[in-house]
Design a protein that fits this description.
Blueprint: E1 13-15, H1 17-21, H2 24-40, E2 43-47, H3 53-67, H4 71-75, E3 87-89, E4 105-110, H5 118-121, H6 138-163, E5 181-187, E6 201-204, E7 210-215, E8 221-224, E9 230-232, E10 239-244, H7 246-251, E11 261-263, E12 271-278, E13 285-286, E14 302-303, H8 304-315, H9 317-320
Parallel strand pairs: 1-2
Antiparallel strand pairs: 2-10, 3-4, 4-5, 5-12, 6-11, 7-10, 7-12, 8-9, 8-11, 13-14
Helix pairs in contact: 2-6, 3-6
């Protein structure tokens, strides 16, 4: 196996204030910056994104409080519904084919739905009640962060649509009951390299349309450049990190790049991150022919929820033996 090579490149930093508050010309310029970063790197930093600092800090404090709970209390938050990305995910549950398990644990929350929702009753993947821990104020601080990041992501999707020459609400219109989930991730200090021992998060690409990521002060995120080298993506307190997912690559006919990335937590410290994975409504058909094409379509249409659920069944031990509903 060839040793890893590291790049001197750095991910671009995009000031989103111009899109949020600028005139049409400035919005178009920022949208093109996002498109260029999405095409070249598949990752970028986004400043002035609109998620309040105090909401972010409260979210990280809640994450630390949750993972400080005894294991039995965390386990009590495992979703009772099958095929879900809500509640507690134990250590070593994620394992991509041919790799060692990821050394991380997480808590997920999704778009709130009433218990009698028809899709919940039908057992549709990713549709379930949220499984809240018995922590005072936990829900009260995590839900505002979920919705603040959801709105920031919608604005990013509007900019991406504009850059593609589509109606600015093209993507947002497909996200009225999204499978979007926010994940609080805890990476314990990574053990020394040994057979059967993985890293914090094995090299992978995200499955959805975009991901918004908040990090604590401990680094570890690395993004693979087009030449196969690794770009360090150190945390910035003033920025979200945005990356392109597999569904967006398909939807844009490969124009926007879903980049491989990984987390190596070799600092000897606890590491926390809060990604929000943006997904369309489950039954959305992702077809590049629905966007202005520059060339012949390279991807066949897929049903968004079925595509993502198939990936979860492949990469999650807790999903591997569960039937994925149609």
């Amino acid at each position: 196996m060839q040793p890893d090579t590291y790049s001197a490149q750095r991910l671009p930093v995009i000031d989103f204030a111009g899109y949020r508050f600028g005139d049409a010309a400035l919005r178009a310029r920022v949208a093109q910056e996002i498109a260029q970063a999405s095409q070249t790197y598949g990752f970028y930093y986004l400043t002035n994104h609109g998620v309040p600092d105090e909401t972010v800090k409260a979210g990280f404090a809640a994450a630390q409080a949750f993972f400080a709970l005894p294991l039995e209390e965390r386990i009590a938050c495992v979703s009772r519904a099958r095929n879900q990305n809500r509640g507690y995910q134990p250590l070593l549950d994620t394992q991509h084919p041919g790799t060692d398990p990821d050394v991380k644990e997480s808590f997920d929350m999704g778009f709130p739905l009433p218990p009698d929702d028809a899709d919940i009753l039908a057992g549709l993947p990713f549709h379930a009640p949220n499984a809240w821990p018995a922590l005072p104020a936990f829900r009260a601080v995590t839900e505002p962060l979920y919705f603040a990041m959801l709105e920031a992501g919608r604005n990013v999707l509007r900019a991406m649509a504009e850059a593609l020459g589509a109606d600015r609400n093209f993507f947002v219109a497909h996200c009225t009951r999204p499978s979007t989930n926010m994940r609080m991730v805890h990476y314990p200090p990574q053990p020394p390299a040994a057979p059967g021992v993985g890293i914090g998060s094995t090299a992978h690409t995200d499955k959805g349309i975009i991901t918004l990521l908040l990090n604590d002060a401990n680094g570890g995120l690395q993004v693979q450049a087009a030449d196969g080298s690794w770009i360090d993506a150190p945390p910035r307190e003033d920025a979200l990190i945005v990356n392109v997912g597999q569904l967006m690559t398909r939807w844009t006919n490969g124009r926007f790049r879903s980049a491989v990335h990984r987390v190596i937590n070799d600092t000897g410290l606890e590491r926390y991150s809060i990604p929000q994975f943006h997904h369309p409504d489950y039954r959305t058909v992702v077809d590049p022919r629905d966007l202005p094409l520059q060339e012949e379509a390279q991807f066949e249409p897929v049903v968004a929820g079925e595509f993502v659920a198939a990936g979860f069944k492949r990469d999650r031990k807790s999903w591997a033996n569960a039937a994925v509903a149609a």
